[in-house]
Amino acid sequence: MTARRQHAAGTGPERFLLWAVTGAGKTEITFPLLEAVLAAGGRALVATPRRDVVLELAPRLARAFPAETLAVLYGGSQDRWVPGQLTIATTHQLLRFQHGFDLVIIDELDAYPYHNNPMLAFAAEQACKPDGVFIFLSATPPQKLQRQAHSGKLPHARVPVRYHGHPLPVPRRIPMNPVQLCMKRGALPAAFLQALHRSLAREAQIFIFVARIAQIEGLLTLLRRKIPGVCIEGTSSKDRDRTDKVIAFRNRAITILVTTTILERGVTVPRSDVYILDADSKLFDEASLVQMAGRAGRSKDDPAGRVNFLSPEWTRSQRKAIGQIRTMNSIARKQGYLDRRESSWTH
Question: Per-residue pLDDT tens for 134-158?
Fold first, then answer.
């Protein structure tokens, strides 16, 4: 049964999956639909997992829809009682609504805290009117939704290329001891430092992802000792200054930012390179690795940003993440979406 028939049968909102690579401009792709709903006098909601992403998307929505009242909702926000025709919110804010929207867009549905959270999934469904439309957005949809899409049970569209027409950067592997061992020895491997210097030489902003918050301070100490004169900071979910640091990083006041998966999604920084330490960690699954890798190459001025997996072990998750990236590049190439110069950007 198609989604349209389900919808007509009154079994809930119509559903659709937009499966698009990181940096494809998923939010902008939905703008015509948002415009149509708002022009008809309807209400629309864009929900995303984290406050960082809400703060990233809010200005883009405000610029795109200047005539609409925009409510921006997250824990501690000032817009709690603003009756916006257009609302952007963290997924936890969905608990406040009951059949309030004609269109509900769930961005990054595979991310914490929405993923595997029945309460939030129920709240999202309740936020949409029974005769409304429910759109899922993701670069890495859960296996269940992928199976439904492949079998035809869930209408979907796949976008295998970024807006600038260049392929996704394919991660390279750099063998490296675990971060904990490096900190214990007080030394970083030469291959890692050499790669960092190459990134600095091309004036890239550098994301360094670690598996655990407890590793950030020790790694900062080593990096500042080995790379003096460069502004290096760290942030995590426990950092009250996280928003300010991300802004400073985007504005190039910070050159290297050591962080956790809290910044694996929604943050766009032009000319950036990505280093994932302990890439073999069980805390990094395939989707997480793809998302972190997706911070690089997002800008049309720097589509060939570099991605590096650093770890002592070469795991299934790393291989599958690279396989997924290569598959999307292959689909985009076969469908003629890639820029003719793309061969110069591939690894």
Answer: 999 999 998 888 999 999 999 999 9
